[in-house]
């Protein structure tokens, strides 16, 4: 039986993005090994990582701890990771390695080149993009261009990245993949009972409007801009309640900002959650203020649950949201634009037909990103 290596810098990327790929590879007859950092840098809880390792073990997947650092500045730690991955490739003679994340992609392609191991690299959104900081272009673009020569298959997940990779890079093959696939059987509009139960769990009153965000508590996910908007919104709309799912390094900073603006009754940090589908079903508006995305899973899951969205006008988001059709696009760093978009949704709320159409448009649009469609594309790539 041929062996393949699934590689990411952190375990949360395996958990959130690659379990369907692992199942597909096993279906195709491969023995799958997984390597990542199970200990540090994850965006999910330690308990969730432990559950992931147990699930992989139950699937007869071998797991290897690699000491990746998420920060590109930690060169010593990532050089150690390179030696570990190179040794693993030499030892096991993989048919190919499927790697993810910028750090994982760099390490895997260098190790693959040295050991003559075929490499498939999924770019979950290049760090250089239209409007990106100049430093991102100076640091990441040259690295990706050089390493594309050691990339047998490059998979991009949004139209901007695909066009640039086809024109500027040198991978053996380049594909556009519409995301990682959304489980439409799990993410769908909720029934009345589910919605009421989840709202009660959150302490929401019937007249209150439930705004939801899902994402790591980091600068990139940009939750601070919505909290800034809420400072003004609640003065005019006291019925608004904003909940944020996720954990990360910005938790304390966000908590301090909530206290500073006296928003304790209006803004709540829920931490890492395993009931995201039910939360999306219960939400009235999904707010997604991220500064940088590839093709955002959280946004697609909310759309599958037929939630109207307010999101930043950035690469990836613009692949999914058409202004006024299934939500509103706003400037990522402008609280006033979030205020205007949320108030616009509040104004049309009484026009049930307009809101109903927006919900239907979200569900219809997301069908092309279903897990079944993505699996068919990945099966052709893996073969």
From TrEMBL:
<dbReference type="Pfam" id="PF13579">
    <property type="entry name" value="Glyco_trans_4_4"/>
</dbReference>
<dbReference type="InterPro" id="IPR028098">
    <property type="entry name" value="Glyco_trans_4-like_N"/>
</dbReference>
<dbReference type="GO" id="GO:0016757">
    <property type="term" value="F:glycosyltransferase activity"/>
</dbReference>
<dbReference type="Pfam" id="PF00534">
    <property type="entry name" value="Glycos_transf_1"/>
</dbReference>
<feature type="domain" description="Glycosyltransferase subfamily 4-like N-terminal">
    <location>
        <begin position="23"/>
        <end position="161"/>
    </location>
</feature>
<protein>
    <recommendedName>
        <fullName>Glycosyltransferase family 1 protein</fullName>
    </recommendedName>
</protein>
<feature type="domain" description="Glycosyl transferase family 1">
    <location>
        <begin position="196"/>
        <end position="364"/>
    </location>
</feature>
<dbReference type="InterPro" id="IPR001296">
    <property type="entry name" value="Glyco_trans_1"/>
</dbReference>
